[in-house]
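Entry 12.
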Amino acid sequence: MEATQTSFSNLQQQHAQLQTKFEEAEIQNAQLRSELANKTQIIQQMKAEVVRNEEFVVSSNIIVTFSPEHFRVNGSTVTRINSTGWVGCFTKPVSKGIHRMSIRNPGTDGIMFGVLNAAKTSKYLTFGANKSSEAAMMNNADGYLYSAGKYPARNIWPREGQEWSAEADLEKRTLHFFIDGIQQQHHFMSIPVPLVFAIDAFYQDV
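Predicted 3D structure (tokens):
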């Protein structure tokens, strides 16, 4: 009888020890899971930052203004095209990441702002960028979105002096517009990649 009690007592002690070890292992496992989740989040953020930094990125706080010969983005002169009745300006091509470009609305009508297929920039800027089926642009005179010469939807149009921004997500292939930092309701999907940001002004002495 005494031997049975001793054996039972030993088993209870072993069970208690195993229970303690199991609880300690669960705590350690929870800590490791938390650390793993934190590291995973950091890696994802770093990957996104790498994608953004791979190519020329136009920062959201850069304001572009018209001048007689060119306009500037981040201190770099971008290309300007003149033709009968039209003035076109565009940036370097981009193919990855999220890019935003902002301009200050000059208060004159007939200005298109958005993106174009990088491979067809020169051709369509010469004849009016909004006529291209691979354009995604917004008009400052009425707020309508234009592609292939047609307007599918209407946002609030930018008033004189307001900051007018276009943000292209080249992974999702979307183009959203902002007026003084406020995102507008209507946007483009399936935008071309690679693309250029473009300003197309009709009969503008800029």
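Annotation: Residues 167 and 179 are 11 Å apart (CA to CA). The first strand starts at residue 63 and ends at 64.
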